[in-house]
Amino acid sequence: MPKTKNYVIHENAAWVEPLRAAFYEIDAPFEEWFISEGLVDLSSAPPNGIFYNRMSASSHTRDHRYAAELTGGLLAWLESHGRKVVNNGRALQLEISKIAQYTALADFGIRVPRTIAAVGRDNILAAAGRLGGRFITKHNRAGKGLGVRLFNDVGALREHLQTPAFEPSVDGITLIQEYIQAPEPFITRAEFVGGRFLYAVRVDTSLGFELCPADVCQVGDALCPAGTGAAAPQFRILKGFSHPLIELYQRFLSANGIGIAGIEFIADREGQVYTYDVNTNTNYNAAAEAEAGIYGMRAIARYLERERRQLEQNERSAVTA
């Protein structure tokens, strides 16, 4: 019987370094599949093991323009052969489309900000006119806060659309979304591993963030949870955190093929909570984890290794039955 492995599908080696170290720490067999260019031979069978998909919606910003599309085909191939995929093809669909993400969240009664999708500058302006008040723009295929800007009125957006600063989404779809005004400058990110809640982290958005505080974790590599730059916001893990949304989030993740993710939400001045991002390529803040003594990548490595060992045990049982 061929030995199984944990296979990690990704396009950013720097983001995998902590996971690589966690695998070595527990002596778990693993192999990385770096997906930028490549091929998938549909007439062949994939190796046996557990496949963890970490493809990012922002992969095109690292000159990996078709990495997500190739990964979609790769996952379909794996799933057609019955391989266990953590963050499967449906999860990838949600990763690269905010529209798919928001509609899936709404199916579970999870409140999202009012959002209108538009293609074409005239339609972007028309969408903003429907919202009224302050609003933000963002890319449908996002990550790193791509396209996120705050506008006070339609006139300001009209001027912006006429400048080179306007950057269309890689899929052509711009989202116009109501601005959620928080009473305090922070958002909360809930981390899940194996579909179960791991911890919540409070992200202070007060340090120089001028767009939408709800997207502070996504604006640039230096400001994402994995960032270590001096300008990065402060991250603090909330011990003993509980919230009614956690159970809803776990049901949502299970129904959409997502085993590992970070989900971000924000409360407005009236206390209404809005969920605005599901990140299936989640990273963690090292300083916050060291202070709390909780480590996301170690939890991921242990979870994947348990799944791999269970797979081998099941296959041994099938052979001897």
Characterise this structure.
This protein has helices spanning 13-25, 67-80, 89-95, 98-107, 121-131, 154-161, 245-255, 286-292, 296-320; strands spanning 5-10, 30-34, 49-53, 84-86, 115-118, 135-139, 149-151, 174-178, 186-193, 196-204, 235-238, 260-267, 273-279. A hairpin with a 2-residue loop joins strand 9 and strand 10. It is α+β, with helices and mostly antiparallel strands. Helix 1 crosses helix 9 (296-320) and helix 5 (121-131) runs antiparallel to helix 6 (154-161). It has a five-stranded antiparallel β-sheet with strand order 11-10-9-12-13, sandwiched between helices. A four-stranded parallel β-sheet has the order 2-1-3-4, sandwiched between helices. Strands 5-8-6-7 form a four-stranded antiparallel β-sheet, with helices on one face. The chain folds into three domains: 5-91, 3-Layer(aba) Sandwich (Rossmann fold), CATH 3.40.50; 98-111 and 181-297, D-amino Acid Aminotransferase, Chain A, domain 1, CATH 3.30.470; 115-178, Dna Ligase, domain 1. The two termini are 15 Å apart. Mean pLDDT is 90; it is low at 208-232.
